[in-house]
Specification:
Layout lengths: L1 H4 L2 H23 L7 H33 L8 H33 L3 H5 L6 H28 L7 H34 L3
Length: 197
């Protein structure tokens, strides 16, 4: 077991195997079988959307609740470990988590035939539509404001020290804007199907 847990990819694979086993056991015990149709496809897309969103918003909150506040207390000689190793890797998963969340969300809305209605904020899809628009703004911020400025702040793109400091501030403030937006976005996503509006 420890060999599986020492590798992220083996752990993820084992998690998928466990999921399949649980599904097989649960369906056997309950006497229900999976019907591989449109409903199952939309369920899987919703699951992928939630998994992607967990990656994206989890990293957003990690940056804002853990990394940014902790940077001032990290000794200068240890900061390169953050800026050269941890942050670039976290930002990779952050960016692609955002992209996967948007793609799976749009596909799910399309599969459920409410994409246009939600994006045009028509009742009864206005809550999810508001959540979708906020998520699109947040994803734009990730790819076109946070990431370009983080590349400068982390030294992945060489710039003058003043521009590096300015880029770090812009990235941080935009990340904080996304944190602010995430609270309403998450509420609207859950409110749509759970009567929160």
């Amino acid at each position: 077991m420890s060999q599986i847990l020492q590798s992220l990819y083996k752990t993820l694979f084992a998690g998928l195997v466990l999921l399949i086993l649980v599904i097989v056991i649960a369906s056997t015990v309950s006497g229900q079988t999976i019907q591989f149709g449109h409903a199952w496809g939309t369920f899987v897309m919703r699951w992928l959307h939630v998994v992607s969103g967990t990656m994206w918003i989890g990293l957003l909150w990690y940056f804002n609740f853990v990394q940014i506040p902790s940077m001032a207390s990290i000794p200068d000689e240890q900061k390169p470990a953050i800026s050269k190793v941890i942050a670039p890797t976290a930002l990779f998963w952050f960016r692609y988590g955002a992209l996967a969340t948007v793609i799976t969300g749009l596909l799910l809305a399309w599969m459920q035939k409410y994409l246009f209605l939600a994006l045009t904020l028509q009742i009864p899809f206005s809550a999810i539509g508001i959540g979708m628009w906020i998520a699109l703004i947040m994803a734009f911020n990730v790819w076109f404001i946070i990431w370009p400025n983080q590349k400068k702040a982390l030294g992945l793109v060489v710039v003058e020290p003043a521009e590096k400091a300015k880029a770090a501030r812009v990235a941080m403030l935009t990340s904080r804007i996304n944190t602010l937006l995430s609270i309403t976005m998450l509420y609207m996503m859950v409110a749509q199907q759970n009567g929160g509006l």
